[in-house]
Amino acid sequence: MQAWHHHPPGGTEKLKIVKADIPEIDDDEVLVKVYAAGLIWMELYWQLYEKEDGTYKTPIPGEDYSGVIVKVGSKVPEGLKVGTEVMVFVTKAFSSKHSTDGGMAEYAKAHFSKMIPKPQNLSHVEAASVPLAALTAWQGLFDHAKLKAGQTLLVAGGTGPTAIWAIQMGKMVGARVIATAASEQSFKLLKSLGVNQVINYKEAKLESVLASENVDVVFNAVGDEVTKQALKVVSEDGIIINIVDTTVGDLSKESVRDSFREPFFRKEDGRTVVFFIVDMNVQQLTEIGNLLNEGKLKAVIGAVYDFTDVVNAFKQGETGHAHGKIVVKGPGL
Ligand SMILES: NC(=O)c1ccc[n+]([C@@H]2O[C@H](COP(=O)([O-])OP(=O)(O)OC[C@H]3O[C@@H](n4cnc5c(N)ncnc54)[C@H](OP(=O)(O)O)[C@@H]3O)[C@@H](O)[C@H]2O)c1
């Protein structure tokens, strides 16, 4: 089969398209013919693949993908059969025998617990854009922040793939949503998502615009500088949800990363700050899939690349100005 391999350490110059063997599956695994895979541009810089002897594995990029099942192991539950279209999230962050390779290949295998049937109303490209980003927003807003109707939600980095879900989910539950962005294209997108107030992060600091605002929840998809500013605008009983946070330790080390299987809550200036790493959750992804089928949420695609053009897809991600998820089509689509 055709597959992209990354040869870390290094970035896009270390991506190679190769002929590889179709993966063999275990009893509890499924083989999927991949039609589309989501792109996470930072994954080329993760240290997940360094072995104890200092050499590196050569992973297939992509954590989430969509396709059709072509083979099932004997212990796979009945709902997943040959011919079932699925969307998959393999969660590479937490090591297991099942999670080293992703979806940028003709075929990919995954444990049955890492997938759900594809929502019917979604194309494969749309489905591939959903799991990682939508689950991150869902777990941040609902598991950790307990966001409710009537609250004010501030989403920093508003037009990135993850933040777009946070905005939609905030609007869906009846929160007032404020978002930051810095380009005309971003402002237009935020308006189309129904954002109540937009802040141009290049022109104003959060505290200068939101001094009198009662912000209950901050969803921070940008990083430490936003945490500092957010501490000045979040209410005393509010919460800052960080999905990027360099203060929590070196996440390239497995022992550090593994400690984030549970979210890490701390107090800063009397405010609650939480950092967490997303994990697959079948029930939550099914609920998100139902909301997508009903049209209550929508997949926002920033760009779609052909399978042979993976290097340029990563290069676009690396600009840090994606407006929605970047998706790579499988060789068979
Ligand atoms: N903890 C977890 O489990 C988890 C899960 C998913 C993602 N992440 C992390 O979350 C971060 C976001 O990832 P992503 O893929 O959703 O988005 P991304 O592609 O990294 O971000 C792109 C967006 O960020 C905006 N942006 C850039 N700098 C900004 C700033 N200083 N202030 C406000 N907005 C800014 C850009 O808007 P403009 O074009 O308008 O500038 C653009 O729309 C990444 O660092 C990723 O590693 C963590």
UniProtKB/TrEMBL annotation:
CDD domains listed in its UniProt record: MDR_like_2 (cd05289)
Pfam families for the chain: ADH_N, ADH_zinc_N_2
A cellular component annotation (GO) from this entry: mitochondrion
Gene3D superfamilies xref list: Medium-chain alcohol dehydrogenases, catalytic domain (3.90.180.10), NAD(P)-binding Rossmann-like Domain (3.40.50.720)
All copies of domain Enoyl reductase (ER), residue ranges: 10-328
GO MF entries: oxidoreductase activity
PANTHER family, alphabetized: ALCOHOL DEHYDROGENASE RELATED (PTHR11695), RETICULON-4-INTERACTING PROTEIN 1, MITOCHONDRIAL (PTHR11695:SF294)
Protein name as annotated: Alcohol dehydrogenase zinc-binding domain-containing protein
